[in-house]
Design brief:
alpha/beta; Alpha-Beta Plaits; Rossmann fold; 4-stranded antiparallel beta sheet; globular; translation initiation factor activity; nucleotide-binding; ATP-binding; DEAD/DEAH_RhlB
């Protein structure tokens, strides 16, 4: 679902130091054995000229265990920070974008917020108060003036590159051949990769894996990229996930960057832990190419479901969060996540939640 608003954006002028900071990645917890070549090899897929300079911190000739990697562009630095940190000499190093130290603030904040929420619920139980899950959350009423104060872009029809002189009967034949029922008459499906222009790095991943968009992708993308609501029904394995994930990436990349405790922009709700994991797996395939930060919120008994770990990742700042309702409400009540910047909402398997 999208909420209306206009789009204006002015790029501020940056000093040389600010511009250089946007191209710098911090590496910490480094063993003495680490070398430039370890980092060059780790980020080799970004290209031979991605890294401009590697600087190591020393004092009195002794290595201090951290350093800074200057990339040739901010986008390369952001993508580099999304790689899984390498393990060197038996130690997984810390990689952080736009940081100058090994801050544990997000981890501490997550622990404190969640513990406070648990104590508050215990106090309610002890006082025999009956409070439903999420009942303590205050509703937010969005007014037109609120939207004007925080404009965002939602129309991306410029990415559609339809073949000229295509006839209406071609679209009708496409719908008929794929047994599709469309409720609006003005929908023109995308009939090949040449008719859509997602980010070039994302397009490279897509065209290497898929010969053509699937039918639901062909129809959903033009609708969602125009900023309209869309309801889609299709069988398992039909490509529904990418039908909403790719427009989500396009949408969030056009908005101001999410900083600490201010995201997400895109929120994907699912009814089950298993579906959440599946969607995150699809996003993980694209997160480096798209340079996006993915957060997750679901329950379970494995390490990936650790709520303190999940909360710390969200507090750091996530562009998109994939969540089940229960864990998400927990995080909202605790103050781990805020929805004030959500402008792209997906309800996957909505019939199972409503």
């Amino acid at each position: 679902f999208f909420f209306g608003g206009s789009y204006t954006h002015t790029m501020p002028l940056l000093s040389h130091r600010q511009e250089e900071e946007r191209r710098t990645v911090f590496v910490g917890r480094c063993p003495d054995a680490i070398t430039d070549n370890d980092l060059l090899t780790h980020w080799a897929s970004l290209g031979p000229d991605a890294i401009k300079k590697i600087s190591w911190a020393e004092k009195d000739g002794n290595f201090k265990g951290f350093g800074f990697v200057l990339f040739n562009s901010p986008s390369l630095a952001e993508k580099a920070s999304l790689f899984e940190p390498p393990t060197i000499a038996g130690r997984q190093i810390l990689v952080s974008y736009k940081k100058s130290g090994t801050s544990n603030t997000p981890k501490r904040s997550a622990h404190e917020l969640l513990n406070t929420m648990v104590k508050r619920r215990e106090n309610m139980r002890n006082s025999q108060q009956k409070v439903a899950l999420g009942e303590t959350l205050a509703p937010k009423e969005w007014k037109p003036e609120d939207l004007k104060a925080a404009p965002f872009r939602k129309d991306f029809t410029v990415l559609l590159n339809y073949q000229e002189n295509r006839k209406k009967f071609e679209y009708k034949r496409f719908f008929r051949n794929n047994a599709m029922k469309i409720t609006e008459d003005d929908v023109k499906p995308i009939l090949g990769w040449h008719e859509i222009k997602f980010d070039k790095d994302v397009m490279k991943v897509l065209t290497e894996q898929f010969e053509n968009p699937t039918p639901i992708q062909s129809v959903a993308w033009p609708i969602i990229l125009s900023g309209r609501d869309c309801i889609g029904l299709a069988k398992t394995g039909s490509g529904k996930t990418l039908a909403f994930v790719l427009p989500a990436i396009t949408h969030l990349k056009a908005q101001a960057r999410v900083e600490v405790k201010s995201g997400p922009i895109a929120l994907i709700l699912t009814p089950t832990r298993e579906l959440t994991i599946q969607i995150v797996a699809e996003l993980d395939k694209l997160k480096i190419a798209a340079a996006i930060r993915v957060g997750v919120a679901h329950g379970g008994h494995d390490g990936g479901a650790n709520k303190h770990f999940q909360a710390a990742q969200i507090i750091k700042g996530c562009d998109v969060i994939v969540a089940t309702p229960g864990r998400l409400i927990d995080f909202a009540e605790a103050g781990v996540v805020t929805f004030t910047r959500v402008t792209y909402l997906v309800l996957d398997e909505a019939d199972q939640m409503l």
